[in-house]
Amino acid sequence: GAVAQLAFASDEEEKRLFVVSAGNVRDELYGNDYVYHEHNQTKAAIDDPAQSWNVLTVGAMTELCVIRQEGLEGWQPIAESGDLCPTSRTSLAWPTDNQKGWPIKPDIVMEGGNYAQMGNDRSSMNDLSMLTTILHPSGRLLDTTRDTSPATMLAARYAAIIWSHYPHLWPETVRALMVHSARWSQRMIARFPGKKVAAQRRLRCFGYGVPDLKRAIHSAENKVSLTFEGELQPFQKKDSAYRTYQLHLHRLPWPAEVLLSMGEAKVRMHVTLSYFIEPSPGCVGWKVNTRYASHGLRFDVVRPTESIEGFKKRISRDFW
Asked: Which of 8, 43, 108, 193 is found 20 to 30 A from 233 (Cα to Cα)?
């Protein structure tokens, strides 16, 4: 609640973007009961305060899967390329009756290294770790690191680079660009194949995937991005009850002639809605999230055969 409140800020304060690690599996990784992915999904719940609504929560994946060091023949990487780092925690391990309606965590995943296994023995290795700097009594300046901490540092770096390009963006918008640019690897999709239920499980394990810095900063080839920042009052007191109040309608600047010229080609639209809630820490009941979150924004789009007037009437009684 404290982290969410610091991010939300008051009218006199400046909003902040917190980048928080999802947390790591520790000694359990070396125990006989540890089974890769099963443990991460059932017992390794995301650490406090990474469940905070307003932070950018970062889990770890890995593409480090080659062991070159001599004398380590027989050791094999635990995770395949594009899969979850063996120590990364997930919200799949939250009680199932508490997951619905609560935020998707982690939001994204980034490189966190890998671990190796031979029989029942598991170990970290330089070939499966990330290079970093260190201040050491011996005078050496380099060391290796792994897990969700370096993944979080990479995410913070991405956020800083985005902000350096667009210094006037809101913190919510920087978070949105990070998430909007993220995609799942083929291995992530194969881990949870299918739609709806499988996609929800994929989200609670890998978030929205691995962000792409170029995609976040610039519109990539054949991909156009539109960013909108705005404010609204979500609720209004009427008589003795509170009801939903304001909404925003956006007419997207579609390149109609270009789209029509594409004929049967498929076009995919990604929509990312990012906002900060005002938390109520005294009402953190996990079974009723509305007691904690000040509001929950949603979006909808016009259906293929629907008019604008029909769309307005469908989403709000005020248009009748």
From this structure: 108
